[in-house]
Amino acid sequence: DVEGRKRLGIEQQLPEDFPDALQRLDKDKVLRNIMGEDLVNAYLTIKYAEMDMLDGMGAEARRDFLLERY
Length: 70
Fold this sequence. Notes:
This protein is mainly alpha-helical. It contains 5 helices and no strands. It starts with a helix and ends with a helix.
């Protein structure tokens, strides 16, 4: 619950999904500074391209790709 998170000092919730996580990374100045602009930009480019590719696949092909890759 919200009050419980506040008591624990948790101010932000985790992203709802992977696209939300990528958007948050894109806007996170602290992580960009720590990881470096080039690395963050390359990671985002790869992950957005991967999401586009996966969106074009059927469920079985997507599952097979992910199991083989990860």
